[in-house]
Amino acid sequence: MTRWQPQKKDVLAALADEILHNYGRGRTTVAVDGIDVAGTSEFADDLAHAMRLAGHTVFRASIDGFYRPRAERYLLGRESPEGFYRHSFDYATFKRVLVEPFRMGGSAGFVPAAFDVQRDAQIEPTWLTGPADAVLIVDGLFLNRPEIRGLWNYSVWLDVSDREAEARREARDLAARDSRLERGLRYSGAQELYAAESTPRTRATAIVDNDDPEHPRRRFADSC
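RE: above sequence
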């Protein structure tokens, strides 16, 4: 049985081939960026699988493994979009224990996650090493913000229409209706701040329409 629909397989294979053609030697860092319901985690997993099928070593991480403690995240209040955008993630630790040592290569060890947001506690570090030629794919929010946009050799932006994003948020929040308004305003407001400050679509190497995750479509400049 094939893992994906033919169109999805083709899109992932083409992206994998493009990245490995341009950055197949040495250590390469790839971001899969998008809004909170864009599907970045699944897409990054599938892209990593496509690269492994091509015979390349790939490591996966998520910015979600580098949250700040709850007290720091909510300095501006639980409903603050600016607080969510500016205080959610520990970029200094993200760079220090993951990206920078990964890019060094050699025997340098790197840590794929440092914080458990559910327990609001640090994670006992798991140190990894890899071969000289390897790719690190990181998914999550705000990956082309000023503090970290220079870390990536290649960046994918997952596009999702407003209508589809709203439908996904509705489905996600059915089990937590009491927090739906709070979370929706916090997330959407933070995304507006991110778009205004960082214009992430214009910084992406590739834009992929992910309204239908089983049939993603590569977008180009004349179709955006």
